[in-house]
Amino acid sequence: MSNLLTSRQAEELHKSLIAYLSSCGYTDASQAVRDAVNLPDTTLDPATTKKYEGLLEKKWTSVVRLQKKIMDLEARAAHLQTELDSATPSSLAARRNHDPKTWLPRAPARHTLQSHRQPITSLAFHPLFSSLASGSEDCTIKIWDYELGELERTLKSHTKPVLDVDYGGPRGATLLATCSSDLTIKLWDPSDEYKNIRTLPGHDHSVSSIRFIPSGAAGAPTSGNLLASASRDRTIRIWDVTTGYCLRTLRGHTDWVRSLSPSPDGRYLASTASDQTARVWDLSLPDSAALKQTLATAHTHVIETCAIAPAPTYPHLAALAGQKKPPPTSSSAEYVATGGRDKLIKLSTTTGLVFKTLVGHDNWIRALAFHPGGQYLLSASDDKTIRCWDLAQEGKCVRVIEAAGHFLSCLRWGPSVYKDSAIAAGAQDGGAGVNGEEAKETIRCLVAVGSVDLGVRVFSA
């Protein structure tokens, strides 16, 4: 020890040892150390002993704390080095400039929101305000202010786990829809302190997914008064939220329908199920002819999630599919992504051609979201990670985000904002806005994931 410590440091350590042993009642040991180091009583009187008696414990806990901090920093450095090794010129430029079209989330999360007492099952962003709804197996829905990272309110009405949530509804009258294992769908009015305004019964088993169906055709699509729901009773139902009536029931899946994804113009609806198929429905046709295509997407297990690709992805997906020319942007539901319990993500045309399989996750795929800019696809998995796939680089995984301490159950990208509002209104009603102008889309750099660890994490630029 004399080789490592100066004489002053050694004396301080000896005093601390003797004082610690004395304070613990080890008088003989304290005296033995005092004799061994030849420390006179005048040097370590009772007042000095009192001063030194807690010093050794403080130093010990400080060392442990610093060791943990060092380990955390080393892990962070290793994570950043991994990102740097897989960085591309476009991703580096995106980080420098925060270009919304190429922005991707990165750890750590801006906020970790905790209040639920059971695993999170679903998330939804309010289309205009800084509100985020989360559903949970604790039978509640919580409304958060994701900019402040604060809980605003808790909604209680469901009697069993809440399985999905979604914002939408008639323009100017946004609603929150929730569905549950209690066989019901509930509608809440955010403008009236989230009053439960309607309950929609009708399904014969757990309602596993709900999505508002957009009413606009191009430009700035918004939701209308139609809501689609998927259930373990193997059906998909279309509801009018203004009356509460079930308008139609779509049948075709032979097992539990797990997820829904409407096209941006609201004409098509994709669904996935435990029967290992995805299906695309044309909602403009009568029930008997609504099933446009059954996609046997080569998944070998339950398909948990799907996402219809928006028009900005067409140039990249067309190249991946070997098509010489991308489809026109006016066309909707050209491509669909599916993810399942076989740990795979499949990219398919809606005519049934699987043209790319994305491999990388080590557990079930729970959620998918296309980047509004069109270049990336994000996925969340039970392997606790978010993965970002670059569609311009043949689907290469360009970022892995260790997002939570347990399974990830859901992922949502914040909805884009459209301006000018008058132009947007025109675009929502028919495509081009007033004076033939198109509504300008502002992409939000905003992603949220929910986890079995009871936390909601918000990532933003």
TrEMBL record:
Principal subcellular localization: cytoplasm
Subcellular location: Cytoplasm, Cytoskeleton; Cytoplasm, Cytoskeleton, Spindle pole
Family stated for the protein in its record: Belongs to the WD repeat LIS1/nudF family.
Keywords on record: Cell cycle, Cell division, Coiled coil, Cytoplasm, Cytoskeleton, Microtubule, Mitosis, Repeat, Transport, WD repeat
Originating organism: Salinomyces thailandicus
Summary of subunit composition and partner proteins: Self-associates. Interacts with NDL1 and dynein.
InterPro entries for the chain: Dynein_regulator_LIS1, LIS1_N, PAC1-like_LisH-like_dom, WD40/YVTN_repeat-like_dom_sf, WD40_PAC1, WD40_repeat_CS, WD40_repeat_dom_sf, WD40_rpt
GO cellular component: cytoplasm; microtubule; microtubule associated complex; spindle pole
Annotated coiled-coil segments of the chain: none
Domain PAC1-like LisH-like dimerisation: 7-42
Name the record gives this protein: Nuclear distribution protein PAC1
UniProt repeat feature WD, residue ranges: 113-154, 155-189, 200-249, 250-284, 358-391
PANTHER family assigned: WD REPEAT-CONTAINING PROTEIN POP1
Source organism, top-level taxon: Eukaryota
One MF annotation (Gene Ontology) recorded for this entry: dynein complex binding
UniProt xrefs under SMART domains: WD40
Keyword tRNA-binding listed: no
Region (Disordered): 85-104
GO biological process: cell communication; cell division; establishment of mitotic spindle orientation; microtubule sliding; signaling
Gene field: PAC1
Functional note: Positively regulates the activity of the minus-end directed microtubule motor protein dynein. May enhance dynein-mediated microtubule sliding by targeting dynein to the microtubule plus end. Required for nuclear migration during vegetative growth as well as development. Required for retrograde early endosome (EE) transport from the hyphal tip. Required for localization of dynein to the mitotic spindle poles. Recruits additional proteins to the dynein complex at SPBs.
Record keyword Plastid present: no
SUPFAM superfamilies found in the cross-reference section: Lissencephaly-1 protein (Lis-1, PAF-AH alpha) N-terminal domain, WD40 repeat-like
A Pfam family annotated for this UniProt entry: LisH_PAC1
